[in-house]
Design goal:
437 residues, 19 helices, eight-stranded mixed β-sheet, alpha/beta
């Protein structure tokens, strides 16, 4: 039986080696790794997320007590140091002596016993001196280390949202987030009570059928999950589905549907009457959508497979079309902390792809119908700029004057959800109306 610390080191090395998503990797590892109990499972999860989220701050503090660069350390030794430093600097319930002693033992168990004395000495210094950051007078370097935010990303947020909002965004990305659930209205009005009875701390939100829960453990193991009483979906994403305004009996197309959360919520808004076409380019993700719809008891969902740009030739004209485009994910760093370590070059080709998808999805919309473009990123090049280009090239579309949409947008043509202000993930939504023929 593996310890939580050993499992965390092993998974952190895999995530870094494979450039993998933490959420998916943790889900897979949780199924494969045998830990002693729920407490060890919780520690394992906290260590993995914590090290990824605070990696730059951890490396800065570790490097203060090294005589050679971090890159010269054996990868396993460095990962053990990061896990140890995280416990010493950012986790209150673990005694310093236990954290240091476990790290030294780990080094011996995991084949880097030659580094045990170094690990012991460095972590003792970390424990003795506490967390350190660069001087606040050097704002850029301080914030970069304080929030483990690469300088290019810090400059990006500064440029587009201002210095004050930048710090608020970075602060909102820190720590474990509440998990938002969409309660299945087709299962009656007692779903929240059932969740509370299963031990979840359920908090209401301003949005109907949306609740926040904390300290959930393995939520997919709950009988309420298996019975289709809810699905996991962020608050911002749920609001986006309400914006679409789907009604019973309509034809709706969700063009980039995986993992299916929006498809399910839209189908529920339709009272499971009509048709929701859920498309994805990957067959295994299409099958996950089918499984989710079956679990929730949704019979109006029809899955399709292929590039979203090809859908106008495959599907009938739709009353409402959702184009939730692939994006850089800069709004969901709080849930997928590894996104912060992307290179800026990875963002450059996205707007062209997003515009192509939006333009093709628009071809699916009936005259008088509705088109919703959304992303989970905070990047005007992928959001406002794509929408501006679309409107300039699509004279039969206008920004919607829907009452609910306008109440969210205020004076702006589109809605940007900020994590520190709106409570959910960073998100963007633009609602368009096609002119009647």
């Amino acid at each position: 039986m593996e310890s939580a610390r050993d499992a965390a080191v092993r998974l952190l090395l895999k995530i870094e080696r494979d450039d993998a998503y933490s959420t998916l990797s943790l889900a897979e590892a949780s199924e494969e790794t045998v830990l002693a109990d729920g407490r060890e499972q919780a520690l394992f999860t906290a260590l993995v997320y914590g090290v990824i989220e605070r990696r730059m701050a951890l490396d800065y503090n570790i490097s203060l007590y090294l005589t050679s660069p971090l890159k010269r350390l054996h990868p396993r030794a460095l990962s053990i140091l990061r896990v140890g430093a995280l416990q010493l600097l950012f986790m209150d319930k673990i005694p310093d002596r236990a954290a240091v002693g476990e790290a030294v033992s780990q080094a011996k168990r995991m084949g880097v016993g030659f580094a045990a004395s170094l690990i012991n000495a460095v972590l003792r210094k970390v424990a003795q001196n506490g967390v350190k950051y660069p001087p606040e007078t050097d704002r850029e370097r301080y914030l970069s280390i304080r929030y483990s935010c690469p300088k290019w990303l810090l400059r990006h947020f500064d440029e587009h949202y201002g210095a004050e909002r930048t710090e608020s965004i970075l602060s909102a990305f820190e720590g474990r987030k509440a998990l938002f659930l969409r309660l299945n209205p087709l299962k009656g009005d007692s779903v929240a009570a059932r969740l509370s009875a299963e031990g979840l701390d359920v908090e209401p939100t301003p949005l109907e059928y949306c609740v926040a829960v904390r300290h959930t453990g393995q939520i997919v193991s709950l009988s309420s999950f298996r019975e289709g009483l809810f699905h996991v979906q962020d608050l911002s994403s749920q609001i986006c589905c309400k914006l679409l305004g789907a009604r019973p009996g309509e034809i709706v197309a969700d063009c980039c549907a995986a993992p299916g959360g929006k498809t399910f919520t839209v189908a529920e808004y339709m009272n499971d009457k009509g048709v929701v076409y859920a498309n994805d380019i990957y067959d295994h993700k299409r099958k996950l959508i089918e499984e989710g719809a079956k679990r929730l008891g949704l019979t109006c969902v029809r899955t399709t497979l292929g590039d979203a740009a090809d859908l106008p030739e495959k599907l009938p004209p739709a009353d409402r079309v959702l184009c939730d485009a692939p994006c850089s994910g800069l709004g969901v760093i709080g849930r997928k902390p590894e996104i912060r370590y992307k290179s800026p070059e990875e963002l450059e080709e996205l707007p062209a792809l997003q515009y192509r998808l939006l333009k093709r999805c628009a071809d699916l919309v009936k005259p008088g119908g509705t088109l919703l473009y959304s992303t989970c990123t905070l990047n005007p090049a992928e959001n406002e700029d794509v929408c501006g280009r679309f409107l300039a090239q699509a004279p039969d579309f206008t920004v919607s004057d829907d009452t609910y949409y306008r109440s969210l947008c205020g004076d702006a043509p589109y809605k940007t959800f900020f994590p520190e202000r709106d409570g959910g993930d960073g998100f963007f939504a633009a609602l368009f109306q096609r002119k009647p023929s």
